[in-house]
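Technical note accompanying the year-one report. For the benefit of new consortium partners, we illustrate the data format agreed upon in the data management plan: each record pairs a sequence with a structure-token string. No post-processing was applied to the example shown here.
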Amino acid sequence: MNENKEQQMQSDDSQGMRDNSQSIEPTTSSGAPVLSKNDELLEMGASFDFDGFQVVRREFFAHLNEPSVSFNNYKFYVNTACLSKFPKTEHVQVLVNRKTKILALRPCEEGERDSFLWCNNSNGKRKPKQTTCKLFFAKIVTLMSWNPDYRYKLTGKLVHANGEYLIAFDLTATEIYQRTFPEGAKPKTSKTPVFPLEWQEQFGLPFNEHRQSMQINIFDGYAIYAIKDHSKMNGGAPAAEQQALVPSINNGGTGE
């Protein structure tokens, strides 16, 4: 009798395990949800249309762990998340497409032309390197009609294209940290970003436009910029080069 009871208990346990395994449906793609037997699924088929939907910009959310670059006080630098995406990369090339306004970081070897050291390595610990690059800063400020006194932060997207991996940044989608200059006091930089005026009346790009916005063809229309430390430029650069820098920054900052 006890043996029959034990067999019945084992049978109930096995049935319970089968019920539990059946309650979770296997997924066949990364976009499919895990459903239990009690979940309701509204099947709309082809009647659902993304037309009219906007993809909310990720700049509106916290994104501390996403790759970003900053332009600030004539300096250009990446964040730790960029380094984490490429843990063995010490040098990158900076690519800019003037037409699409996309900036891309392409991992490369130190010996490649215009390679840029994007990190410092101290005792095996890598940290982002802030590099003074007055000429590159001035060209970007002029291209985008930015204010050179502000800090601009861009959130990037990891891209795989033509067999290579890059981090791509939309120069038109930037967080702006304004800096004020109170009389008799040190400059103050806002900790709260402001966004482009055209973002005020929208959540983001329309769905179909968004899907095409970051398509990249490597080297098609891109210029590779040489970013070197120009912190001592005033002492070594030709006078004509230094004089050309000032009007470029002023014109880009004021938009005049």
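Partners are asked to follow this layout when depositing records. Confidence is low (pLDDT under 50) at residues 9-28, 231-256.
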